Amino acid sequence: MPEYPGSGRIPGRSRRVSGLFRRFSGIPRLQSRRRTLQTRSLPGSFGNHQSRGGSGGPGPAEGRAFYIRAQLKRTNSQALCRVEQVEYVTTFQVLLLVTGAFFAGFVDSIAGGGGIITLPLFLSVGIPPHLALGTNKLQASFGSLTASLRYRHSGLISFRKLKTGIVFTLAGAAAGTAAIQSIPADFLNMVLPVLLLGVFLYTLFSPRMGELDVEARIPVFRFYLLFGLAIGFYDGFFGPGTGSFWTIALATLLGMNLKRATATTKVMNFTSNIVSLTVFILGGKVLFLLGILMGIGQLSGAWLGTHLVVKNGTRFVRTIFLIVVAATIANLVVRRFL
């Protein structure tokens, strides 16, 4: 394998997965043309970071991941599509990420919040944030699709009845993704923990909420017009806590029990995920092979989680929901103030 100037070499104890995350060549109609070639060392959380230095570039460092940034140009248009990939990831790190995806899929299929497991893992192995976000959308889509199909098979949801919600959620997610450059994320980081705290307290002190289906408080079309656009916009722009907002809204305003609300939430999550994932793919921010490997873990965890939801009652869903909301609040507060 050729070495690039300044890239250094991964020590023997940190096994190199040869070509595992090279530039993905399967994107249709893209012809490789290196416009820039830049190698960086990214600090990871594994091994001892002992750098011996070198001429011009970073020296060898155990537990570091290296990636190459290249630009590709479409052969039939003027648009540039940047593809950024992690060049070296150890076998242990891949296994860690796939295992984390399994647990994330399990939790997410029950109460949402799988991202609070997978995103820190991405960053801990040295994957840049923009690639972590894009790849997280890819692997999470496996879990939300699996959960949606499993809930449909069990009779908890009907795609035909959800088509209005899907359309408005799709539109909201597209608008949120388009507006991602104009709304300050710091504002959402401050407001979101307060909103989620309200969701947590309302659920905690409403022990009978979502036990049975009750009459809807507002018409279904009006509900999806408001919340499909609003929550879809939020998920396309930011994302954390989306499942919690959907579940509490469906249970309180449409009168669904928590099992049906959770099942419906997975369909809406998958809808908004697809929009964001498309944007990340066009921007070259997805590690395809890693995302697919983690997707296998996601769908396995999602299958197990949906099985437990179908088998157990709403009290089980409520307990997991409260735990996930509390963990999401803690995660956001730590990221904001520490």
Q: What distance lies between the first and last C-alpha atoms, to the nearest angstrom? A: 41 Å
Low-confidence stretches: 1-85
Number of domains: 2
Going by helix content, strand content and strand pairing, the class is alpha+beta
Number of helices: 10
Q: Which band does the percent of strand residues land in? A: 5-15%
| Annotation, overall tally of beta strands | 4
Give the H and E element order.
Answer: EEEEHHHHHHHHHH
Cα gyration radius (Å): 21 Å
Shape: globular
Can you give me a brief rundown of this structure?
Helices cover 58% and strands 7% of the residues. With 338 residues, the protein is an alpha+beta fold.
Would you kindly provide a written description of the structure presented here, covering whatever features stand out?
The chain is α+β, with helices and mostly antiparallel strands and 338 residues long. It has 2 domains: 1-88, no CATH class; 92-337, no CATH class. Helices cover 58% and strands 7% of the residues. It has 10 helices and 4 strands; from the N terminus they run ββββαααααααααα. The protein has helices at residues 91-111, 115-124, 129-153, 163-178, 185-204, 220-237, 242-253, 258-282, 288-311, 314-337, and strands at 30-31, 38-42, 65-74, 80-86. Strands 1, 2, 3 and 4 form a 4-stranded antiparallel sheet that branches. It is globular and about 50 Å long. Mean pLDDT is 74; it is low at 1-85.
